[in-house]
Amino acid sequence: MDGTKIVREQIPDDEFEVLEEEQLSGVNELKRFVRAFFRRKIVVVGFILVVVVLLTAALADVIAPYDPYEQDLYQVLAAPGPSHPLGTDALGRDLLSRIIHGSRIALAVGVCTVLVSASIGTVIGLIAGFSDSRLNSLIMRITDILISVPSLVLQLLIASALNSGVTGVVIAIGLTLFPAYIRLINGQVLSVKQNDYISASRSMGAKKSRIIVRHVVRNVVSPLIVMMTIMMGMSIMAEAGLSFLGLGILPPAAAWGSMCRDGYQYLMTRPLLSIAPGLAIMILVFAFNMVGDGLRDALDPKLRGALK
């Protein structure tokens, strides 16, 4: 007798049917998610681009033909050719190698910034949603004030007060993006609180912390993941802007924003010095935005339910 029959005989019929239904439900849910996520070609393209950039960052030391910081003063501002596919910069450094290694900085800043801003915003949003009306109103009015201030102005102020580098850029961008998470989480919490199962949990004496962990957090995870994915693109754009203005990742680090700044004075003679890293920024931001749209379609029950 095989193992499947032994297990089947040891489980009562009603419990076995429930277990079988749960397994089938999990499989169908995964298939439905995959089908909804990949149903649009533009999302597939964005997903492929994200995977390519991730692999490029992980294998940068292997893929890059040169050391991104190695200077060759005999090849200053060299035109694209067999030895240097995208040419060299004003210090003779290979442009392609610097773009490849720059993907690491872009992804590192994007991931760290999103984690910082999402953590702060989620905690404050949960506190505001489960607080009394006066504290909730106070938190949301402060959030509205922070959102009304141009993010670039706050980022410049914070970045100028901190030392330049990845840590300073992450703090500067993270502290300007978390109010959007507060608005999202607070709205989700206020909506979930009206459901009957929350009232039932309260009537059974469940603690507020238990309700938050077991019921509320589960319902806010999906929109939070979508927003974090889209915010990745915004964080990368913000880092590139700060680096271009000289308050972000400074040379000799291979950051795409600082590379655009270094090359803009050679736009008439060597336009690739600015255009190539600018295209890299545009492609990566586009890819994350498309992946965010795909996740929204796959995680939203209303949109996903329309698929047959």
Automatic annotation (TrEMBL):
InterPro entries: BP-dependent_transpt_permease, MetI-like, MetI-like_sf, OppC_N. It is a multi-pass membrane protein. It is found in: Cell membrane. Residues 103-292 form the ABC transmembrane type-1 domain. Its main location: membrane. Keywords: Cell membrane, Membrane, Transmembrane, Transmembrane helix, Transport. It comes from the Bacteria. It holds the Pfam family BPD_transp_1. Gene3D superfamilies: MetI-like (1.10.3720.10). The chain crosses the membrane at residues 42-64, 105-130, 142-162, 168-185, 216-236, 272-291. GO terms for cellular component: plasma membrane. One of its GO terms (biological process) is transmembrane transport. Belongs to the binding-protein-dependent transport system permease family. This is Peptide/nickel transport system permease protein. It comes from Sporobacter termitidis DSM 10068. The lineage of its organism: Bacteria, Bacillati, Bacillota, Clostridia, Eubacteriales.
